[in-house]
Write a structure and sequence with these properties.
The chain has 371 residues and is α/β, with parallel strands linked by helices. It is built from 17 helices and eleven strands. This is Alpha-methylacyl-CoA racemase.
């Protein structure tokens, strides 16, 4: 795998950081997660920790800080998810850790960034998205703005942090030096929204819910079927729209693409005449841009996804997407890796700590070797 040999230390957190660590792990990096000693819930909450080493360590204590610095001294990447200033208070900020390991890539993944009035304030996905202006685009017509589920934290947080890490690895190959990455969700999701922002006056110039891409157009919406399920219609281009109305049994005069507010009602009435599966059969592999709205469980069994082995299901029934994108030099699909309950003892041994010292550290609640 392309990242084999890369060592990652991930400070335990929720959602964006663990997902970023998963991406690195799936493409070959070894990832060690450092969790709080008192935290017994990380494995259950962070369902993307499969295949990672889990260590329980009190980095606030002098001995715990020493262990943490030893871990980071041989690492390539540190993923740090805390608010601005937290690591500096612990004397574990970039200046300290890069002084001991100049090749370290210190990735700081936060909501608001390392500076500014909100840098030390709590927030969640909806808050970050609201500050970008993009939340104003999401929601039903004549209703309140509605956030897409964790879109900002994963796209603007995990993926943009991953991009920064990979860029820093390329730069390190040229310069031999590590660096600090200020990856924050507000700026990350704003950057990902560049197309939406720049096209606002063209595609989002009407109130929310009245534009082509937000449910305002009958040719870009979802429709209920006879069995209470739904089909997604996305026939934007005229040639695709013509294919759509042909499959629905309408002429263009009966269902013009523009300028007729009654077409949506005609579409809905027609879709209610058949079940979702019947419509899937009718539209098949046509260019009408019509697809079924599937549940996650159904997506695993959908023929296209089956043919490509896009998902796999473990013995407990947990559904997992294969890693993406696919690389031609590494064609094998992602394998389900076991969850590791606690690797603290093994990691401490690897750092050179004796059994007696490990027992002493556990008695002092600086580490936890059993859960």
């Amino acid at each position: 795998m392309p990242l084999r040999g890369i060592k990652v230390i991930e400070l335990g957190g929720l959602a964006p950081g663990p997902l970023c660590g998963k991406f690195l792990r799936d493409f070959g990096a070894s990832v060690t997660v450092v969790n709080k000693v008192v935290d017994n819930t990380v494995v259950d909450i962070n369902v993307v920790n499969d295949g990672k080493e889990l260590v329980y360590l009190d980095i606030k204590s002098p001995s715990g800080s020493e262990i943490f610095q030893k871990l980071v001294a041989s690492a390539d990447i540190l993923i740090e998810p805390f608010r601005a200033g937290v690591m500096e208070k612990l004397n574990l900020g970039p200046e300290v850790l890069l002084a001991n390991n100049p090749k370290l890539i210190y990735a700081r993944l936060t909501g608001y960034g390392q500076s500014g009035p909100l840098s030390r304030v709590a927030g969640h996905d909806i808050n970050y998205l609201s500050l970008t202006g993009l939340l104003s685009l999401y929601g039903w017509r004549e209703k309140y703005p509605a956030p897409p589920s964790n879109f900002s934290e994963f796209a603007g947080g995990s993926l943009m942090c991953l991009t920064g890490i990979l860029l820093a690895l390329i730069d390190r190959n040229k310069t031999g030096r590590g660096q600090v990455i200020d990856s924050n969700i507000v700026e990350g999701i704003s950057y990902l929204g560049s197309w939406l922002m720049r096209s606002k006056n063209v595609l989002f110039n009407e109130p929310r819910g009245h534009n082509w891409l937000d449910g305002g157009a009958h040719f870009y919406d979802t429709y209920e079927t006879k069995d209470g399920k739904f089909m997604a219609v996305g026939a934007l281009e005229p040639k695709f729209y013509q294919e759509l109305i042909s499959k629905l049994g309408f002429s263009y005069e009966e269902a013009p693409q523009m300028g007729n507010n009654q077409v949506r009602e005609k579409f809905q009435k027609r879709f209610l005449e058949k079940t979702r599966d019947e419509w899937v059969e009718i539209f098949g592999t046509s260019d009408a841009c019509v697809t079924p709205v599937l549940s996650i469980e159904e997506a695993v069994k959908f023929q296209h996804n089956l043919d490509r082995n896009s998902f796999f299901q473990n013995e407990d029934g947990v559904i997992t997407p294969i890693r993406a994108p696919r690389l031609s030099n590494y064609p094998e699909g992602a394998k389900q890796m076991p969850f590791r309950a606690n690797d603290t003892y093994t990691v401490l041994q690897r750092l050179g700590y004796s059994n007696e010292k490990i027992q002493e550290l556990e008695e002092e609640e600086i580490v936890k070797c059993k859960i």
